[in-house]
Amino acid sequence: MARVTYLTAETAPPAVASTVAKMPALHVFQMLAHAETAYRPWLRYGGAILSDLALDPLVRELVILQVGRLAARYEWEQHVPIAKAAGGTDAQVAALDRGDLSVFDEAQRAALVFTESFVRDGEVSDEDYAALAARFAEREIVEIALTAAHYLGLARIMTALRIDPDAAVGPEGLPAARL
C-alpha cells in the first residue's frame, strides 16, 4: 500500500489540479502531484526524455527497462509495451528480464552494461565506457545517462513511497512516449 495518497483532479492542490486531470490516471503521476512546484517541470523533463532525445527510441526504452529490472518493477511493466512499439522483440524483453544480453547488438549491449553499472553503484569501468563510446556520440552517451538517472530517481521514489502497480498504458496512453 502506498505511503502517500494518489491525487486526482478533484483532490489535487489547485496549482496542479488541471495538469493532473490531463495526465493518464497512473499512480506515478498522482503520487508526484504532491510536489506542486516541481510537478510541471518534472513532467516536462520526463516528456523530453521520452520524446526529444537524439537517442534511438529503442535504446532509450532498453535503458529504461534495465533500470526497471534492477530498481523498480513498476517501470518495467509500464515500459515493456513502449519498448515493443519502438521495435523491441519479445525475445529481447524476455532475455533482458533474465539478465541475458546475448540477443542484443553491440550498441544495445554497451548501453545495457553501462546502465547496469550506473544503477548498481554509479561506477562504470573504463572498458565498459570505451564500449559505449565506440558506438555512441557524446550527446547520446549523456542522453543514456540522463535517461538512466531520471528513471533511477523515479524508481527510488516509487520504492520508498511504495507505489502500487498500475496496468501498463503503453505508448497510446502516454502521449510523450508515442513514436
TrEMBL record:
Keywords noted in UniProt: Oxidoreductase, Peroxidase
InterPro entries: AhpD-like, CMD-like
Any one GO molecular function term: peroxiredoxin activity
Ranges of residues in domain Carboxymuconolactone decarboxylase-like: 38-112
PANTHER family linked to this entry: 4-CARBOXYMUCONOLACTONE DECARBOXYLASE FAMILY PROTEIN (AFU_ORTHOLOGUE AFUA_6G11590)
Protein name in the entry: Alkylhydroperoxidase family enzyme, contains CxxC motif
Organism (species): Pseudonocardia oroxyli
